[in-house]
Amino acid sequence: MRTPSKSRTIIEIAIVLGIMLGVKDILDRFEMIGAGSIAMWTGIAAASLFMRQRGISWGSFGLTLPKGRTAWLKAVGTAFATVFAVILFMALIMPLVAQVVGVEVPADAADRFAFLLGQPLKFIAYLVVVIWLGAAMGEELLMRGFLLNSLANVFGDSKKGWAIAVLVHAVIFGSLHIYQGFHGVIGTAVVAVIFAVVYLRIKRKLVPLIIAHGIINSISLSAYYLTDGKMT
To answer: Is the pTM of this model over 0.90?
Structure first.
């Protein structure tokens, strides 16, 4: 495995994020369903090319299945503990933060899901393809896998370096949710910190985070669907 220079790593990060944002912008202009997920996977494809040049695989960043029943139970347990931590933050702490900062969730933030209402087959397909494969797996691979580890290479493989990498990756992740308003940016940035801390605590394993991410997004979308768009 070849470790790239800091400048090379920064260029790789910029290219991957640039490709992802460019694809997202193009697809949004055509109002394509799942534009964010498609864009995320184009970013993953670009990251994969850079990783191949360095002789590393996604397994190096934690994309490996747990081996044995005990390992799976630990992975699922970690996933649910992460879900609980995120829900606790969103329910108890985020409202206080929003009040202090003076931000609210945009009234039309969830309008992009309106096409799912009253369409059970579309809802299930969206849940599987976009929520689980696109958001849960895609975002964890790119954000916690590629981006966080790349930033650690830039800032140094030390506690301070990883701490800075966690914060910078959280700012980037939060900024990608600007369509949710400043409230969404803050919320998703803190969630990114929670996920990153868990990722490092469990020795950089991605499967528990993919499961947690999928559960959280599934709960949110299901609440929106089952209440006819009155709750997210």
So the answer is: yes
